[in-house]
Design a protein that fits this description.
272 residues, five-stranded mixed sheet, 12% strand
């Protein structure tokens, strides 16, 4: 038996006329991508390179990222912003992390704090559970129902969801408030809330907020409310929704996934 390494046995030369891409070229592109997506791991980097036409396997990407010290080291932390001791009505968990097959069939909502130079502001977001797209958000210096209502109103205006869409959140006072519930009922939402003290019941929204903190908030200082608004808006609209690859979406961005999903639905629709 010939003693050959597996890589030598399976080696295939580049097709005629196509020059094999060098480690240096891949490394240059990885460093450029790392500036735009600082928390991309080697799997997302590999998927991004594949989408750009670079046929490279994940082991090579991992090796080159290690060489350039591009592997992210995420600090994990959890900050509680939920006040569920409010005496307002709460609702059962209708969603139960069952991801729908259609857009605007379930929305997930959550909020978090953002540190400024001398104070805190608060961010409320809503995501479409099918595509993970942020469909509405609002930033405020006050952690109250006006914040959550502003994000919800923006989402409804942008998406016009059909009656019966599930709205899922934690049991916080901002989501149980009478004015918030009134908007949900007016537009025909089914109201769903997580079990008490169980953040895993709202895993998709929690995941987005961790991504936002790791890839935007913790990498920047916001001297003013206006600067925080500008940077967070850019991250949500231009990076997260448009460009950031999601493993749960087959390494597509939310916008790309929605376009493909809508196109597939049109193709499957019966002819008149």
């Amino acid at each position: 038996m010939i003693d050959l390494a597996p890589s030598s046995y399976y080696y295939q030369p580049a097709p005629p006329g196509r020059k094999a891409i060098s480690d240096a070229d891949i490394q240059d592109r990885l460093e450029a991508l790392a500036l735009e997506f600082p928390r991309y791991g080697y799997r997302r980097m590999t998927a991004q390179l594949h989408q750009e036409g670079c046929r490279v396997n994940h082991k090579r990407v991992l090796r080159l990222m290690r060489r350039s010290d591009l592997l992210c080291r995420v600090k994990r932390a959890h900050v509680h912003t939920t006040d569920s001791a409010h005496g307002l009505p709460v609702y059962p968990n209708l969603y139960q992390n069952r991801v729908p097959d259609e857009l605007d069939r379930a929305w997930v909502a959550d909020l978090t704090y953002i540190r400024l130079a001398t104070t805190f502001v608060y961010l409320a977001v809503l995501l479409d559970a099918c595509s993970r797209r942020v469909v509405g958000w609002a930033l405020s210096g006050r952690l109250d129902a006006s914040l959550s209502c502003a994000a919800l109103t923006a989402a409804i205006r942008a998406r016009q969801p059909p009656p019966g869409c599930i709205h899922h959140s934690d049991r916080g006072a901002q989501y149980a408030a009478h004015e918030y519930v009134a908007i949900l009922q007016e537009h025909g939402f089914q109201i769903s809330m997580s079990r008490a003290g169980n953040p895993y019941d709202n895993a998709q929204a929690e995941s987005f907020l961790k991504t936002l903190k790791a890839e935007e908030v913790h990498l920047n200082d916001y001297p003013t409310f206006q600067e925080a608004t500008r940077r967070i808006e850019r991250f949500i609209k231009e990076v997260y929704n448009q460009k950031r690859l999601h493993s749960s979406l087959g390494y597509a961005s939310p916008v790309t996934f929605e376009r493909a999903h809508t196109h597939a639905q049109v193709e499957l629709a019966p002819s008149p």
